[in-house]
Each structure stands twice: as structure tokens, then as C-alpha cells.
Amino acid sequence: MFKKGDKIGIVVLSNGIDKNKKEQVKQLIVEIKNLGLVPIIGEYIYSEENHCLLIAQKKAKVLMDFYKNKDIKAIFDISGGNLANEILPFIDFEIIKNNYKLFFGYSDLTTVINAIYSNTKNPCYLYQIKNIVLDNKEKQICGFNESFFKGKDDIFKFDYEFLRGDNMKGVVIGGNIRCFLKLAGTSYIPDFKDKILFLESRSGKSPLMISFFNQLKQMNVFEDIRGIILGTFTQMEREDSCPDIKQIALDITKEYNIPIVKTNEIGHGSDSKCIVIGKEYNLSK
Questions:
Q1: What is the pTM assigned to this prediction?
Q2: Torsion-angle region of residue 194: left (phi > 0), alpha (psi -120 to 50) or beta?
Q3: I need a labelling partner for 119 at 20 to 30 A (CA). Which of 82, 86, 173, 182 fits?
């Protein structure tokens, strides 16, 4: 996918990076360069320059300029938070469709990633590049290098267990459950027909997840999809919330009998692997 010397764009489409984390961003740039890539830093990266409503259109322009730049091979968002969906009305999906690039982001970027897939059918990568400077940096750097430079599947292959059923096949959509549901009722949400729905969460206990799953049920999502992949639900799993996410998913979808798998390798953890939104997956026991 990449070769040495490829240029990549760095953007912040959700909340600006806190000024106290500027050193982390500097370290990230160093590691990206060590991988052999050439990072091009977009505007409006930090919180002090990314704090008002009028910034959404400007951030979208940064994204569009990177898509129009023929020298940029891929775009990595390094943010998270709450604000990514505000740029959606300012995205030109025709430009994205006609200038395909690898796009990476996670968490709140679930909104942008699914909107891109829904409106262009271009796949996007649910993955946070900042993992290469966090707790599991050595493993992440190795996996990134093996997967994106050598064409192996280290960062894409994840372990899972079936909670119901024994196989599922379909194009994956979804991401962070809270952020994905921001797209409900909009033109940006993907068609659920015959899809596999991936869901994960950083925060939130059992009552909130029960609410989210019931919202999906009331949207008739479970009538259309071919399966569910549950990623990590960080707070719930850290605090042993009861019922756990497995039981919530099984109970609320029981009348549909759709296959469900659970993986502990994709989510908000610094050890997270990558899942591709818009790619067909075929999982079996």
C-alpha cells in the first residue's frame, strides 16, 4: 500500500489536540518519518486554533485540499471527541470519489468514515495512527510496517469468538456506537442491507449500551444486517458492568437470530488492530 517517500496528510476533523499533547504529536511525526513516510501537517491541529463553530468549514477545506493533492497517498486523522460530524455538510464527496486515497481515523471519525463509504463506496480504515507512539508502540510499528509496506495482514487479522451462529459474510460498516448513531436519520448513514455491523465503545456502562442497542432495533437495523462484530467496550469491560456487552447484544437481538462475534482486538485500546469499513469480511468458526 505504501512505499518509502510516500506523502501522507495529517488532519484533525474532530476536537483539536490539547496543547499539553504537542510533544506526543511531535513524537508521532518522528515515528512516521522513521517508517519512511513524509507527513504533511494540515491546519487547525490544536485546540487553541480549533475551538469555534466557524472552524468546521475550514477543517473540511483542509480535508478536500488533501484529496485534491495528487502527491498525497493517504490521509490520517489523529483526533477524537465530539465534533467530527459538523464537517459533513462541507465535504465534497464527488472529489473524494474521484480522488481515491486511504483514509484513517477512529472513534468520533466513525461519522466521517461511514459517510465517505455511504456516499462514495470507497473503503476507509478504522485505525488510530497515534497508536505507534503509545503503550504498545513497538508492536504497532511492526504491525503497521508489515501490513502497509510489505502487504501482510498483521494489523488486519483479529481473533474472535462466535456468540451466536457459526459464520457471517458481508461488507462491514459501523465503528464507535455512540458516534455511529449520530448519523441516524441523515443522508450520511450507510445502507444496512446485508451488512456486518461493527460496534465498539470507549465509555459508557450497561444502561447506555442497552439504550443504544434499542435505538438500533427501533431503526430496524437488525432486520437487515447479516451479523454483528463486537469490539472492545472499554469502560464496561474494565468495570465488569452487568449485564456485559455480550449479553446485551444477545438479548436485544434474540428475535432476529443474527450471528454475533466478539473480538478483544479492535477498539480504543493502544493495542487495537484495524478494521476496514466498506470491505467484505467472511468470518467462520
A1: 0.97
A2: left
A3: 82
